[in-house]
Specification:
Elements (H helix, E strand, L loop, with lengths): L3 E5 L3 H10 L3 E4 L17 H13 L3 E6 L8 H14 L3 E4 L2 H10 L5 E3 L8 H11 L3 E3 L6 H9 L4 E9 L10 H6 L15 E6 L2 E6 L2 E6 L15 E3 L2 E3 L7 E3 L4 H6 L4 E4 L6 H20 L17 E2 L9
Parallel strand pairs: 1-2, 1-14, 2-3, 3-4, 4-5, 5-6, 6-7, 7-14, 13-15
Antiparallel strand pairs: 7-13, 8-9, 9-10, 11-12
């Protein structure tokens, strides 16, 4: 069976571009705090979502709606409404993380397929089977802390579909557990839906040296002409003692395209591309390349090489935890 390519869409235009480029499935979210890419100018209102889903279905593709933040006490109605609207818009599945919201969806929207978000950080077969047995979860998006061998071990002990990230921005923390951005901004990526919110990002030019700040903290300082990455604390450049550098992780992109055959052997159902904040041209190019890769694998042809190097963050790539090479 061909592994499913699950592609990002932060806008209706990106959704159409992904589908046209050959995406099997597109994931997106509503324009509010219910999804973890709650950036200004991104995401879908209800009418756009209905139209986007209809377009995808007309072209043989599926749409998953990410409702993957954790509801705040007293405000659960916003998340409940998002699940109901996802069903009425015709979504093929919802991607959920919160236990209470999973329970609500299972009880009140039993016909709506449920996937477990990477934000739930289910990293072993016992956890995966718990979500399947308790809430009827059909697919789990595995956190980006597992090796290929560990993924294979999970798939050997569960019948639940597994989906793994293969390209895009790389979170170096266990998803759903990071508090760094909250510390700097007062807004939680797990509850308010955005890491390093744009409202708290500032750039200052000091005689040709550009400072990038988050919540008043200087995250990067770059010379004129050097690339200035978006300021996230986990990929910031800091001084500690006599050392200055990227203490958590360099600003690089995940690229596991050459591991696709190994992931297939490990029992992975779907390959997920990160990037709902990216442009439609970026989305289309990444989708075309990964579609070519999985089609070549299915046909028994050699895997294409080096397709995506120039699209990566900082023009640098890593296989992340898949080969356990992080420092």
């Amino acid at each position: 069976m061909v592994m499913e390519i699950v592609c990002p869409a932060g806008t209706p235009a990106s959704l159409r571009a992904a589908v046209t480029a050959g995406a099997h499935t597109v994931y997106c979210g509503f324009a509010d705090e219910t999804n973890a890419r709650n950036f200004p100018g991104l995401n879908f209102d209800r009418a756009e979502m209905r139209e986007g889903i209809a377009f995808a279905h007309d072209h043989g593709a599926k749409v998953l709606i990410a409702i993957n933040t954790f509801p705040r006490a007293g405000d659960e109605a916003l998340w409940h409404r998002a699940v109901a609207d996802a069903e009425s818009c015709g979504a093929d599945a919802v991607i959920l993380a919160d236990l209470g919201l999973l329970d609500h969806a299972a009880r009140h929207h039993s016909g709506l397929r449920r996937h477990l978000s990477v934000q739930a950080a289910a990293a072993n077969a016992d956890a995966v089977n718990f979500y399947a047995d308790t809430f009827g979860v059909k697919r789990v998006v595995l956190p980006r802390v597992l090796s290929v061998q560990e993924i294979a071990a999970i798939n050997a002990e569960t019948d639940v579909e597994t989906e793994v990230f293969v390209y895009g921005g790389l979170c170096v923390m266990a998803e759903g557990r990071c508090s760094l951005s909250s510390y700097a901004t007062g807004l939680s990526p797990n509850m308010n839906g955005v890491c390093s919110p744009a409202s708290h990002v500032e750039y200052h030019d000091d005689k040709g040296v550009l400072d990038a700040r988050l919540g008043g903290y200087t995250i990067h300082r770059v010379q004129k002409g050097e690339p200035a990455p978006y300021p996230t604390l986990c990929k910031g450049c800091f001084s500690a003692g006599d050392k200055t550098g990227h203490l958590f992780e360099d600003p690089v992109s995940l690229n596991a395209e050459q591991l696709i055959p190994q992931l297939q052997k490990a029992g992975v159902t779907a390959l997920k591309i990160e990037g709902r904040q990216r442009s439609r041209s970026y989305v289309a190019q990444v989708v075309r390349n990964f579609r070519a890769a999985v089609d070549a694998l299915e046909a028994g042809l050699p895997m294409p090489e080096g397709m995506l190097a120039r699209l990566s963050e900082g023009q640098a790539m890593t296989t992340g935890a898949y080969k356990k090479t992080w420092r």
